[in-house]
Amino acid sequence: MKLLLRKATQNDADLTFEIEQGSFKEYSDAVYAIEIKSHRKEFDSKNIQIVEFEKQIIGYLEIEEKSHSFEILNIMIQKEFQNQGFGRQLLYKVIKDGQRKSKGIELQVLKNNPKAKRFYENLGFQVYFETEFEYKMKFSHASRIFRN
Asked: What are phi and psi of 2, to 5 degrees?
């Protein structure tokens, strides 16, 4: 199972919206409603990579590289490709890149999505802050070493 990543372009705005709506809708409706018009207007391909599997687009990864960490803004996998290990494989790539660059990894997960929270915890992420709607989680290579 080999995933390919390609740099997103502004032409991928509609595609990323469709993936987000299909894979995240049941969780995001409780917090916000998004419209395609505003998505197109605000879409910035700078930090987005399109995820392909066997020449088919299955999702996207939005990640921002900061001076001391990577911040995962979105991992979106289309519904029909979820629960097949693609998200885990993407996170392993990010973790490996973070380790290579000596950077931690941060992300946010909605509180009404306990499945995603468990997924990240199983990969070594820990909650370090919470708001009314979300958990802020981080992955530290140092803490991962001490856990093993």
From this structure: -115, 120
pTM above 0.85, yes or no: no
Residue 96 buriedness (CB in 10 A; 0-12 / 13-18 / 19+): exposed
Report pLDDT for 40.
Answer: 72
Please provide the size of the chain in residues.
148
Q: Which domain holds residue 13?
A: 3-147
CA atoms within 13 A on the CB side of 131: 8
Q: What is the pLDDT of residues 73-123, one digit of tens each?
A: 999 999 899 999 999 999 999 999 999 999 999 999 999 999 999 999 999
Helix (H) or strand (E) holding 83: none
- Alpha-carbon distance of 106 to 104, in angstroms, equals 7
Domain count, the chain: 1
Which CATH number do you get for residue 114?
3.40.630.30
The closest of 18, 8, 93, 71 to 45, measured between CA atoms, is 8
Q: Which two tokens stand for residue 98?
A: 């973070």
Distance CA 90, CA 119 (A): 13
